[in-house]
Amino acid sequence: MTEALALPGLGGRRTIDQVMPSVAAALGSRGFANTLDLPEAPRYVVLLVDGLGETLLRAHADAAPFLTSLQGVSDVVCGVPSTTATSLTSLGTGVAAGSHGMVGYTSRDPDSGRRLNSLKWDLPIDPVIWQPRPTVLEMLQQDGVAASSVNDAKFVGTGLTVCSQRGVPFHGVNSVWERLDVIVEVIEAAPRAMTYAYESRLDHTGHARGCGSEQWREMLTTIDREVAELRAELPDDCVLVVTADHGMIDLPMDDRFDVTQHPSLLQDVTLLAGEARFRHVYTRAGAADDVAAAWSAMIGDRAVIRTQDGIEDWFGPIAPEVRGRIGDVVVAALGDFAVFSSEDFAIEMKMTGFHGSITEPELRIPVLIAS
Predict the structure, then answer these.
(1) Residue 310 gets which letter from DSSP?
(2) In sequence order, what are the beta bridge partners of 353?
(3) What is the mean pLDDT of the chain?
(4) 140 CA to centre of own chain
(5) What pLDDT shows up at residue 8?
(6) Residue 263 has what DSSP assignment?
C-alpha cells in the first residue's frame, strides 16, 4: 500500500478551524484562544473567498494588488479534505472534520447507506442532527456580540448553512453591491459586532475555466477591487479578515482515470463518494485491506491510499457517529491525477479546476488582515 503521508496542517501548522475562535478572542469573548494572534478590535468581518488558495494568490499577485498588499497569518491550511463543505463547517464550528462530521463534498449516510451531497443536501437528514456542534457565531451571540451571516439569499436554510452558520441572523443578498451595503449596515449597528460573508465566483470560474485561465485572473481582479471597496466602507474600528476554504489546481482533460473502466477496482466496493481528488471508497465488511491493496497496485504513487487505521492525522479525532461517513478506503490524489467515475459523477468529467486532496496548492489558504 502507498505509504501514508502526515497531513500538512494538523502537525503544528495553523488550520482554518482556528480562524473564528481567534476572531472571538480578539473581540474579547471568553473561552476562546487567539491562536492566530489577530488584533484586538470591537468589530470584525470575516470574508471567505471560495477557491482563493494562497499558492494561487501569490502566483497571480499582479491581478490582486490590494489583497497581496495585506499582512496576514503565515502557513495556514484548510484541512482534509480540502473542499468547501468541510472547510466552511470547520471555519464555522472551530473544530476539524472528524468532530463536526462534514467529511466531504459527498459522503455516505451510515443509516441509509446512501450518498449525501453536502451542498445540495439531497437526503432527508436533519442538519442539526448530522452536525450537532454549536457554531462560533451563535456562541458569540450568546456572549453579547451582534453576530450575523451575510450570504447569497439562495443559501438561506440550506443544510450546509445550518451546519456551519446557524444560530444568528442570516441576511440574504442578491448582488455584490447589496452584500457590501448589508455588511456595513450590520457592522455599524452595534458597538461589538462580527459578521461572516461568502464569495463564490472565483471557485465557479476555476471549476469551469481553470484556475490558470484568463477568466479566472479577471475574476480575481474583480474580487480584489470589491474587497478594497468593502474595507474602505467599513468603520475604522472594524478588522476585515479575508480567507478561503481551499486552493485549486487544473487537471488535463485527456487520459483521465475513470474507475468505471477498471471493474476490478470495484470488487467489494459498495459505494463511491467524495470527489475526484479525494475519493471515499466504501467496502463490504472486512474487505478494506484487500480493496486498498488492489487500488494501490493499480494506481501506485499517483495517490496516497489509506484505510481508516490512523486516519486521525487527516480528520482529527473522529467521533463514533462520524466514522461510518468516512470511506473504508480513502484515495488522496497527487500530481495531476484524480479518480473519476463517469457513472457516478459525470459532471466532474467536464470540469477543469479541482481541489480536495492533500497537496500544498489545494491546502494552503490565506488569512489576510485589513485593519
Answers:
(1) T
(2) 250
(3) 95
(4) 22
(5) 39
(6) G
